[in-house]
Amino acid sequence: MRALDAVALAALCVAMLLAGLRWLRVAQREHYLAGAASRFAARWWRSSPLNLAAVSLAAAGAGLVFVWGPASLGEAVLLAVGPFGLGLKGRTSRLAWTRRLATVACAAGGIAAIAVGAGATGGGLGGSLRAAAVVALLVPLVLDAALFVTRPLEGVLAGRFVRRAVSRLERVRPVVVAVTGSYGKTTTKGYIAHFTSSRLATVASPASYNNRAGLARTVNEHLMEGTEVLVAEMGSYGPGEIAEMCSWMSPRISVITAIGPAHLERFRSLGRTLAAKAEIAASAEVVVLNVDDERLARLAERLAASGKKVVGASGRSDAAGVAVVPAEEGIELCLAGRRCGVVALEASDRPTALSNVACAAAVALELEVPAEEVLTRIPTLPVPPNRLQRYAADGGYVVLDDTFNSNPAGAKLALGRLRQEAPLGRRVVVTPGMVELGPTQFEENASFAEAAALVASDIVVVARTNRRALVEGARRSSTAAQLHTAEHLDQAVEWVRSHLAAGDAVLYENDLPDHYP
Description:
Elements: H1 2-29, H2 36-45, H3 49-64, H4 72-81, H5 99-137, H6 139-172, E1 175-180, H7 185-196, E2 202-204, H8 212-222, E3 229-233, H9 241-249, E4 253-256, H10 264-267, H11 270-278, E5 286-290, H12 294-305, E6 309-314, E7 322-327, E8 330-335, E9 338-344, H13 354-366, H14 371-377, E10 389-392, E11 398-402, H15 408-420, E12 427-431, H16 441-455, E13 458-462, H17 467-476, E14 482-486, H18 489-499, E15 505-509
Parallel strand pairs: 1-3, 1-4, 2-3, 4-5, 5-6, 6-7, 11-15, 12-13, 12-15, 13-14
Antiparallel strand pairs: 7-8, 8-9, 10-11
């Protein structure tokens, strides 16, 4: 029996190692946030009847080990291979062995070793086996504990790079423009850089370098001597993060693009979202706000009443401080109701969210870029990768690539753009739905699918995360779009390639990395 117990203990150790690799990959993709591994473990084990049965049997094995040790062999096998669908390597989000990942892995291994060692101290081989059975079942919790205990160390290590960045900022002395929002911040950042670079040496934070470490890296690696404007995107998963970045970035102009349910799972309410994003305004001399957003319009009133200089930007009302609004022949720039000029653009060439253009134009005007110059640069505004990019596929059909979008407002705009395409052909929406919307996620996805069914002839639902909501929403619609399912995006793309031809159009709305079920 002791030999069989030893084999079971070894099997559990292997299972812990394999499970650890899976959940480490999830933690890395979720920016090392404590709690992410456990949250995703709950999603994965509930994602299908097979996974639910597997975790139930594994839990039963962990309980039976207190009666008969070898029962944990079955648990070890199930935890080594499950949850089914979450691969060790991953197709879209591979594990990268960085210094931080190694630190977290060592901390998690240490916690597990202490627990198993404590079991051995109290009960020999049987005690260590029982402890290992429990730890193997709770690997995501162990990993979250490791993320929590290593967080102070990471703060200290990141502090060195922040101090270097502060020194560089003090030497170069650019005007810092900080941009945040629930969505639209990356697009607006690119627009600002496009407008200001015509007259001023401008650097923008690359990709989505929008946290403390990313902005410190931006300054240390990209801020050259002679830079006049630094456009810094700032993201946040909770209160205090933007305030901390502003404490050393010292923005002169701050921009908030929108407040919405993106990351609501973490913020828990739109009020908390607004409060966290509004931290960007505290120390800025000028605050640019998208006043088409009701919450930001009210914030504009409060900030102006406190003496702060506030510029309201709008994509709808020409009475706003800076407005970029639709015109019969294109789009028009207005300053506090005064018409400055019209840019002729076809509907398919117009920026999708004009409020983002208005926010960027407001920043450029504050930096003394002439209104006429802003107008002339609107037709050449950059389209951020994977944010409603339009191109023709090899098969002749139109592709709208909106795979980096995951918010209801953007999804609604994308459907409007799809409606303009393929008037006589087939229109397809490919989507896994939207995530991190907290308690609104089911209804937001159902509403999106209901609206999509009015525009599209076919809806391809990718993966399982939002499948039930999307299918239910599509079936609510008065127009019956054909429903199809795919386990991952590659399958959906193959379906599109085999069914669409010239004259058709497809919208790829959002994409989820494969650490989502």
